Amino acid sequence: MDAFASPFSRGAPSCGSRRTCAAPPPSDVPPSDAPACAGSAACAGCPSRGSCSFAVPSCAGSAACAGCPSRGSCSFANTPRHCPGPQSEDAGAASACAGCPNRGICASGANRVSDPDLPLIAERMKSVKHKILVLSGKGGVGKSTFSAQLSFALAAKDLQVGLLDIDICGPSIPRMLGLEGETLHPSSVGWSPAYVTDNLGVISVGFMLENPDEAVVWRGPRKNGLIKQFLKDVYWGDLDFLIVDTPPGTSDEHLSIVQYLKATQPDGAIIVTSPQEVALNAVRKEISFCERVGLKVLGVVENMSGFICPCCHKESTIFPKTTGGAKKMAEDMKVPFLGSIPLDPLIARSCDEGKSFFVAHPEAEATKQFLSLFNVIIDNLPK
User: Fold this and answer.
1) What SS3 state is found at 312?
2) CA distance 8 to 17
3) Residue 194, Cβ neighbours under 10 Å: how many?
4) pLDDT at position 23, please?
5) Cα(160)–Cα(239) distance, integer angstroms
């Protein structure tokens, strides 16, 4: 598909950076014109490789920075912790701006360029009652499993549910929802989601791949562009819940989704972790990220908190809680602890088969804990 042509194919027809990819760019091309593959190994020998930058920190290089002469060189490492953002009226004047190398540019007002797509996103989101992001600090802790099963459970309550998969490089939601082989369908009102049931729709980059094993090798700006397109061009209709499954970490995808949804007032984020300290250490960073971008933490879920033997049905510890587990960490970080979910091989089987775990195994102990946890989440949301 043209939309997925490699940036290394030197001028793919649909690429907005075709001019700069097809030939080495002249030395006066500003950093903001850099293609998504800017500075990669394929650029060896290009005279502009050193100045061609695509870093996209929380306020640096984002859509809000369009037109800023320092967009390409602005480093998040140099951004003050309480940076008001380049579009703020306090930009360059706030006490947090002291010592920032971009203070003068921000104070001049040159960065206060509004993103024309934000009103379009806000209009789409008017029909969505609740918007919940599912985050994790580490990969492999069951975040997508949680997103998928939460969506199944909400749909089973006869609620209208949308599941948005913004894990661009590792989309697993199509498999977990039994939608492998589905494609996106354009209509007169926008892209239509793929539907598991009449009241459970899904959007994922996985629906845009000709080969499900194909790697998505994209830089930050191209990922951000697709996330924005998912938000402004997908027609969900009226939704009770939009669940957003994110990749691990605190990078481009997370910054983009928070920025694009900020005006629509998302309910907040659920953070999934496993009990061991290696995972908890990353979750502390995820909570810090939420604080920095103003995203409410709805609570922490401890997944794989114990192993339930499929033969004797007894629970044993696989990942020791050497520092007290997620509950202790949540208490220390002053965020809600929502509950624990055991490690059950039947959950993994249900995900591989694209089925609802609760429907397939209604009597399982993990089903009881899942549903209890989901009820806590729903009960704590504004009505």
Assistant:
1) coil
2) 11
3) 20
4) 38
5) 5
Handedness of CA 51, 52, 55, 59 (dihedral sign): positive
In the chain, which stretches have pLDDT less than 50?
A: 1-42, 46-64, 66-67, 69-71, 73-77
Which pLDDT belongs to residue 382?
83
Buried b (16+ CB within 10 A) or exposed e, 128-163: bbbbbbbbbbbeebbbbbbbbbbbbbbbbeebbbbb
Q: Which residues contact 331 (CB under 8 A, 6 or more apart)?
A: 337
SS3 199: coil
What is the model's pTM? 0.76
Tell me the C-alpha distance between 86 and 63, whole Å.
Answer: 10
pLDDT at 53: 36
Q: What is the pLDDT of residues 346-365, one digit of tens each?
A: 999 999 999 999 999 999 88
Distance CA 220, CA 145 (A): 25
Cα distance between the two ends of the chain: 43
Would you state the pLDDT for residue 316? 85
- Going by C-alpha positions, the residue among 245, 148, 142 that lies closest to residue 196 is 148
Any bridge partners for residue 303, and if so which? 341
The whole-angstrom separation of Cα 107 and Cα 90 is 8
**Secondary structure, 3-state, 318-332:** CCCCCCCHHHHHHHH
pLDDT tens for 45-71 read: 544 444 443 333 334 444 445 445 444
Q: Please, what is the angle between helix 220-233 and helix 118-125, to 10°?
A: 40
User: DSSP code of 234?
Assistant: B
Whether 149 and 261 have beta carbons less than 8 Å apart is answered as no
Q: Which residues contact 230 (CB under 8 A, 6 or more apart)?
A: 164, 166, 191, 203
Cross-strand partners of 270: 134, 299
Placement of tokens 């097809």 in the chain: 22
Phi, psi of 298 (to 5 degrees): -70, -25
